[in-house]
Amino acid sequence: MKKPPLGLSILMFLYFALALVALFRAVNTQAVDLFSLGVIPVLIGLVLRTNWASIVFKVYLGIQTLGLSALGGTAIIAYQISPQDVKVILDGHDIPVPLIAIIAGLLLSFQIYLALAKSTKAYLQTEESIKQE
What pTM, to 2 d.p., does this model score? Predict the structure, then answer.
């Protein structure tokens, strides 16, 4: 079996960690969050190298992009109305919103790069589809 490229391996590890956190959260809160649980079919498709993995990966990235755009638009509007109320506090630490925006943008860009990379396409091609071409 062919090994995934380094970038895709890193992403699969991150998706695995996110899937564990999403499952733990779903069990503890008794609420299903499809935005974070949506990573599970993508991870399964990438690990098993299925035919539909690339499509599901790109659809999930589209959903992430829309969600990040909506969150960013809401943050901009809220900042215009009341700048002192736009805060992110985690365990008592105030996290700057621009830092969160930069990290989210970098993570999304990394995922989009991997989804469109030739190495990912080559990894997801099975032996049967290569013989047909």
Answer: 0.82
